[in-house]
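User: Um, any thoughts?
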Amino acid sequence: MCETQDFEGSLSIVKIALISCFLAVNISALAQLKAGFDALEFKEMLLISAQINSNLEQKKEYPTPSLFQKMYSSDTVGFDNLWELWIGDNTAVISVRASTNKEISWLADFQSTMTLANGSVSLTKSQTFNYNLSSNPKALVHTGWLLSLAYLVDDIESKIKEQSAKGIKDFIISGHSQGGAIAMLLRAHLNNLQQQGEIATDLTFKVYCSGTPKVGNLYFAYEYEKITQGGWGFNVVNTKDWVPETPVSIQRLKDFNEINLFSSAERSIKQQPYLKRLLFNLLFKKLQKPTKKAEKKYSNILGKRVSNRIHKTLPLLEIPVNAHSFNYVRTGVSILLFPDKAYSKLFSDTNEDVFIHHAFESYLFLIEQYILLN
């Protein structure tokens, strides 16, 4: 998704003034990574995201993160993907860039067919990404963001090992919008690497995302929430932001667990007399037809057609098999930011900018309010 947007000069002045009033933070409170949502900790992650997602002039408008310094910025790869490593007091931050204004970046968003959460994909003739993001065979994830992760993960894993060897054991994974979606998938991948002994098991990971869209189905969400339960993963959402409502969700009967009301209904229909069986089967098919038809159309547009566009830029990339499901759900623990009248005066619904409630300005304004009230 597009991240930073141009606002009127008056809005920028108000924004800078408001943020500057609360720039001082309690450094000792953030020195050691702890479970639970910490608004000041999240604000630092949001400021880092604003730096990584902005151009040089826009960066001047945002306060510089006060507790972390940028140590590394990756090459741009894949779907115009990039990540940065920031270091603070015994804590490292892995910040993933969100969508850019390039077509290939948006194609990662639009490649919203689902694929299995475990498997492998070839990026080039010599580069293959093996992944296991869930132990549940029914778990499905967003194809485009899985592929985005694939281009970044080797570099990230290398830097984690490097920092671990230097004594850093605490890591925060963060990202806004598409960056948050990739961050969630990254956390699931790192959990598997720890289970396989490929990275140290004494490393602690905490996830802060903001404005993040839906990344997978319910079975992936279950697994992710198990990994991050106890206060180790959050998605901060402006309730006026439309991006967390995406991608479009379509729930079909096949998306339910094996034992459910509908499966028992099918068995019951088979036991009915012939005429009743015909009638009930007809009604049952009518119930399933709309969602089945919708899934087929979405798969064609957001699968085949988008894949063809992707291959013009990434011809060697292997697109994972379409699982023919769009049963996307909200994943992780949500921290909800509720706009009030003061917010609405600055970020009006009448504004023509469709990303006004998704931009860093709006999230920074709301988290400052949250800090004041809590």
Remarks:
- Confidence is low (pLDDT under 50) at residues 2-30.
- Residues 274-313 form the longest helix (40 residues).
- The chain has eleven helices and eleven strands.
